[in-house]
Amino acid sequence: MLHTVNKSPFERNSLDTCLRLSKEGSAILLIEDGVIAAVKGTDQSAKIEGVVGSRPVYVLGPDLKARALSEDQVIDGVKVVDYAGFVDLAEEHGAHNAWL
Amino acid sequence: MAEFEFETEGVKKTFTFMNRKAPYGTIYALEVLETVLISAAFEQHANIVFVDDGVYQLKAGHDTADINMKNFSPTYGIIEMEKEDADEDEDIDMVWRIIVEKESLDARGMTEDDFKVDVEVLTAAEIADLVDASDCVISG
Amino acid sequence: MKFGILINEGPFTHQASDTAYHFTKAALEKGHDVPRVFFYYDGVNNANKFSAPQADDRNVVKMWGDLAKEKNVDLVVCVAAGMRRGITEDSLAEGFRISGLGQLVEAGMGCDRLMMFGD
Q1: What are the chain C neighbours of A33 within 8 Å (beta carbons)?
Q2: Which of A13, A95, B132, C35 is most buried, by CB atoms within 10 Å?
Q3: Would you tell me how many other CB atoms lie within 10 Å of the CB of residue C29?
Q4: What is the CATH number of the domain that holds B69?
Q5: CA-to-CA distance for C91 and C112, rounded, in angstroms?
């Protein structure tokens, strides 16, 4: 299953619920405002830092750029993908579960 | 204009309908329910899951008179009936489960006695495994 | 692979329709099929022919209509959700058609993946 989270952890509990209700080891892709969860040095960074070692975590590059976030601000271990990469993840990881 | 012909003869998938929002503040609860009912017409399996504030959708005693919105909570009774009919009828191959997350109930001081329909209470980990095995996830 | 797309939100207010569009385009460019895009909840507003964005901004309604024409993508607006929000044949943009919720379930059944974009 590919889990996407599109809301910032500062705004909504979607990331928390996703982490609680997704199978261990399943892939997460942060998109839209959800990319904020991938940024180092925030009060919310620990949520993704805590799982990046045990499951694949990705972030959508175009959404980082739009929000003036650079790739070197991204938490170590989170991989940056583009829309083509998003499609590849959807193909590879099975059903899509969008946490809104 | 394209009109694609899907190959759906004999297809049996498991849909998870994920309900995370309280009723009435937004329309998502109602419009997800409409999709659940349509999936019965196609005899597809369904996990109808309530987590976070979605648990309030099932709470008995919705009284919407003062907000002048349609009280759609009787629809949960219809869903329960569809599920029971499918369970009892050997000719229908359709497994529906109405599931509530234990952690969401505990966080809100609720129990299954608050609900107007019978539910399965599962832990987050159990729901994670169940949903992981489904083919499509639709939420509001 | 066949991708079904479900869009829950209207143009401009949320990014959902844009993200769905970019995903759809990328999938088609990679040689995948996107046989159906289903517009539900406020997503029906992506089919409003009266949408008139500012000249220096993207025209989301037209983007979808053009994609439907160029790539033979079936754009389906839910009849019940559409009626609630005033999206009927009279306000329907080019490239879209109105049909029932069964078309969404059918897309879920007949596609390899059902991708959902919302708020």
Answers
A1: 15
A2: A95
A3: 12
A4: 3.40.1260.10
A5: 32
Whether C78 is catalytic: yes
Whether chain C has a CB inside 8 Å of the CB on A58: the answer is no
pTM greater than the 0.95 cutoff:
yes
Structural domain includes residue B84: yes
Is residue B124 situated within a structural domain?
A: yes
Helix (H) / strand (E) containing A64: helix A61-66
Q: What ipTM did this prediction achieve? A: 0.97
Q: How far is CA B131 from CA A11, A26, A67, B48, in A?
A: 25, 12, 32, 10
Size of interface A-B (CB pairs under 8 A): 38
Q: Which residue has the tokens 């008995």?
A: B60
Is B8 a domain residue?
no
User: What pLDDT, on the 0 to 100 scale, is given for residue C75?
Assistant: 98
Question: Domain with C64 in it: what CATH number?
Answer: 3.40.1260.10
Structure tokens at C32: 């995948």
Report residue B3 CA to chain centroid gap: 29
pLDDT tens per residue across span A29-81? 999 999 999 999 999 999 999 999 999 999 999 999 999 999 999 999 999 99
**Domains of chain A (ranges, CATH numbers):** 2-99 (3.40.1260.10)
Domain that holds residue C56: 2-117
Domain count, chain C: 1
Using 50, 70 and 90 to split pLDDT, how confident is the model at B1? low
- Cβ–Cβ of C108/B4 closer than 8 Å? no
Interface contact flag, C32 A62, Cβ < 8 Å? no
Residues B52-71: tens digit of each pLDDT: 999 999 999 999 999 999 99
Total domains present in chain B: 1
What is the pLDDT, as a whole number, of residue B140? 79
Residue from C5, C6, C61, C78 carrying the catalytic annotation: C78
